[in-house]
Amino acid sequence: MNNRTKLILWDSALISGIMLFLFWNIQPHSNLIIGLITVLILSNCAAKHIAAYKLTGKIY
Q: How many structural domains does the chain have?
């Protein structure tokens, strides 16, 4: 996989995590776990986008 495909996969994981957090009614402690995992995915996405920007000079 190239970098652009990885970026798209991480972004789709971030969007699905946000959708799970907002729209899936589950127990409150599970909501906390989903929220923490979504924050970890967000930080990973930001790092990947910054790395791609440094390599190519543009953000996808």
A: 1
